[in-house]
Design a protein that fits this description.
The protein contains eight helices and twelve strands. It is an alpha+beta fold and 249 residues long. It has two domains: 148 residues, Medium-chain alcohol dehydrogenases, catalytic domain (Quinone Oxidoreductase, Chain A, domain 1, Alpha-Beta Complex), CATH 3.90.180.10; 89 residues, 3-Layer(aba) Sandwich (Rossmann fold), CATH 3.40.50. β10, α6 and β11 form a beta-alpha-beta unit. The chain binds NADP nicotinamide-adenine-dinucleotide phosphate. Its EC number is 1.3.1.104.
Length: 249
Amino acid sequence: MVATPARLLLPTAARRLLGASAARTTARHLSTSPPARAVLYDHHGPPDQVLRVADVAPAEIGDRDVCVRMLAAPINPSDLNRVEGVYPVRPPLPTAVAGYEGVGQVHALGPAVDSLSPGDWVIPSPPSFGTWQTYIVKPATAWHRVRADVPPHYAATVTVNPLTALRMLRDFVNLTPGDTLVQNGATSIVGQCVIQLAKLHGLHTINIIRDRPGSEEVKNKLKQLGADQVFTESQLDIKNIKSLLLTLV
Ligand SMILES: NC(=O)c1ccc[n+]([C@@H]2O[C@H](COP(=O)([O-])OP(=O)(O)OC[C@H]3O[C@@H](n4cnc5c(N)ncnc54)[C@H](OP(=O)(O)O)[C@@H]3O)[C@@H](O)[C@H]2O)c1
């Protein structure tokens, strides 16, 4: 699955932002996490106004906890929406850590944890706590191990957008191979995941994108991902749109 958000906090950028040092050794048992830095907010509002970077006190590592050093975390639109407070489910405030997904490396473990080892790569599962911080301590059950040979930007973004695309394809109508679906916003990361998953499942896609400079290259890129048809909005600004779509399926 190719799903690379344009705004990914890649390891180098994330370390610069959060102040983590590049090389750390992993230790099996520690009583507390190293001091961490995090991107926090105390009340909802425009992210550029309410987010702040701050030092976070070391967290206690309980018997069943795992301390993870974050490697990369994306900035998804839904992260910004969460900071803005547009979703009905909100984190308790004041002081929440921003971010929703990402990948990290196990730094230390509580003595009762045998499901993970120092050095393992893990992602939050389900994504339910702030990931824009350098070290996170959560119970072992909050982490899911992933292969460490996957590029970090793939591992960091495997949860939110690909799974949203999968659920859109599965949860609302019963699609079977040979069916055709139409989507707008096809350049979005979710849209690109829809294209790839549809292709894998034998579904055809008709994709609508905005009229923008370079739209021919965008069309080619989406077709390389598996899109069957790609139109700009102006190409579909015609009276017989329904008949056109019917001739395509
Ligand atoms: N579980 C969930 O509910 C869930 C999970 C993930 C995402 N989402 C939502 O799904 C949406 C897509 O997320 P994403 O991360 O894939 O977004 P993204 O990669 O940032 O893509 C944004 C898309 O919106 C289009 N767009 C932006 N402004 C527009 C405008 N004024 N008119 C028409 N199109 C416009 C962009 O088109 P251009 O390429 O032309 O700029 C692009 O296709 C967001 O609303 C996000 O919050 C929901």
